[in-house]
Each structure stands twice: as structure tokens, then as C-alpha cells.
Amino acid sequence: MNHMSKTMRRIILYVLGLFLLSFGVSLSIRAGFGVSPVSSLAYAMKLTTSLSLGFTTVLANLLFIVIQVILNKRIELNEFVVQLTISFLFGGFMNITLFIVQMFPTPETIFSRTIFLIVSFFVISAGLMGYFTAKLPLMPYDALTYAIHEKFNLKFSKAKISSDVINVCIAGGICIIFIQSLGSIGIGTLAAAYFVGKILGWLLSHYQQPLLQWTSKTERAA
């Protein structure tokens, strides 16, 4: 019973983290300054097709899984199933949160758009804190970063920067070719790449330990 209780807490934290992450990305889309690097490819695919953001999120994650297979030259079936399941969950959250955010008043001034963007940084960071603290399977994009880290013997931070840069460049290229603009890429993309890491570091230093204590807390038997 105690084991299940701990597992359920981690699952709750993980799912809540993914939901907040998707909500933060949706807020950044609403701000209109460009989305975070992790979602830039999915949003570029949405802008250049008639597909929903949730579906393009799944497609982008499938691509990340394929690249992992190429780099690792293998992938376990259970790992593939888990990553694919997470992709569909996150894609569903993207559709839900984007629908919710679209009901908010449209930010029409630079000031209001900036507020949306800043709030998105904190929401994304809070989501990442929950997602990482739960210590459950990584999403395909983060698993790809780890694969790059292993394959090329890079520090994880450098592997993260590499995957972000590649993702943003591909997204920008797609938008330039098909809609003749940068589309999903903007000042908000660069700002997210810098500030989300800073905010996440602060949140982890202040709140990760209490979250870890909560997820590992043992319930007393009745």
C-alpha cells in the first residue's frame, strides 16, 4: 500500500507537470512572440498544415524517437511504447490548454503580450520542475537530448543547447519555406531558452526538496 501510495504521488506530480508545461507553451503561443525551443517544431508544423497542435506534437515526438533509434542504433519496444504514450498524453494536453487559453482576452498591446510571455516562463518552469522531480520516463525530446549526450560524449547542458538549436533551425526553415516568415520562432523563443533555465534552477533549489519529501512520504497504517 505504501509503495502504491508513493508511486501514485509521483504519477500525479508527473501528469500535473506535463499539464503545466503544455499550459505554459499555450500561453507563449498566445503571447505571439515565438514559442519555446522544445515546441518550436510542433508549432511550425501546425502553422504550415491544417493539423491540430496536439497532433503535430505527436508527429514531432515521433521524429525525435526515430532520431534516437538512429543515434542509439536500437530502441527497446517497451521504451518506444512508453515514449509514444507520453507523446499522446502531452499532445492531448496541448489541445486542451490551447483551447482554454484561446478563451482568455486577446493580448493586443506589447505590454499585455509581454505579461503573457513572462507568465508562460514561470508556468513552463513549474511544469518542468514537477516533471523532472517525479523521476518517471522522459519525453522523447528530453530522451533525444540524453541520446546526443551519450553518443557524442557531450556535457548534458551542451547536448541540451545542441538539440534546442537544431530544433529551432528546422522549425525556422519549415516556416520560411512554407509561409515565408519565421512563424514559430521569435524573441520569445530566445527569451524562453535563457529565462526558463534560470527560473527552473531557482524553483528546484527552493521547492524540489519538499516535493521529493512529499512523493517519498510513507503513510501510516490505519
UniProtKB/TrEMBL annotation:
Pfam families: DUF6198. Keywords: Membrane, Transmembrane, Transmembrane helix. InterPro entries: YczE/YyaS-like (IPR038750). The chain crosses the membrane at residues 50-71, 80-104, 110-132, 161-179. This is Membrane protein YczE. It comes from Bacillus paramycoides.
